[in-house]
Amino acid sequence: MIGKLIRKKQHTTKRNDLARRIEMAQMESRPAHISIIMDGNGWWATKKALPRVVGHYEGMKTVRKITKFANKVGIKVLTLYAFSTENWSRPKTEVDYLMRLPVEFLGTYLPELIEQNVQVQMIGNHDNLPEHTKYAIKKAVEQTSRNNGLILNFALNYGSRDEIVQSVQQIVNKAQNGDITCEDICEELVSEHLMTSHLSDPDLLIRTSGEIRLSNFMLWQLAYTEFWFTDMLWPDFDEECLMDAIESFQGRNRKFGGLS
Ligand code: V07
Predict the structure, then answer these.
(1) pTM of the model
(2) Which of 23, 159, 178, 220 is such that its CA lies 20 to 30 A from the CA of 129?
(3) Rounded CA gap, 242 and 67, in Å?
(4) Is 71 among the catalytic positions?
């Protein structure tokens, strides 16, 4: 009985603490755009002697939790690295499972996203995705296109070098057609030809699972971004972890504010 009361008290304290942290964070400039490399899902499952796909499923539930929370904190854009161009080299059964997750996620949570005024967007090359994946995404993008809350931007079959190559091809094409000259090519023009042309660059990048690298993710866009790495595996990542990252970002920004 006493144990139960203590646990209840701890739970309430934690919730109040988080509410206080959100309030504090909202008093300072928040990162408008957060990007996350959601790593450690397979390892999370393997550690528990479960099939890797169980980790992916749990990771999907974390996506829901973090989206809801980011929206509540007032983040404008959340870009999530869901599937890289390199992920095709995984076993076929795992790739097939991963390609079902957008369908599963949107089948379950699309009504909730609509209710929360979230706008679903996508970056990556979608030509070679399975039809069921493409259909689910197209529907979600269409049905949320008039929402003006958080932009939930999934990077799916995305590779940054691939994106830069595509941008260069488009620019050269315009130059050959005489639409632009060599002198017109500048940083803004390159940015305008990336898949993120309509978005601001990320202010904060988070990578879970202890890996300290970018793995071909938003190489151009991350030029001035603050990085935050954690050993936490993505299925265990929660609201408090995101607040830790946001507070760390605000702490770093404060220092720059003092100097400028
Ligand atoms: C995937 C769960 C999260 C951890 C990373 C790997 C596994 C959500 C989506 C998704 C994608 C597009 C969309 C709606 C949902 C997803 C893949 C993998 C391929 F419109 N989670 N998640 N897609 N994982």
Answers:
(1) 0.94
(2) 220
(3) 11
(4) no
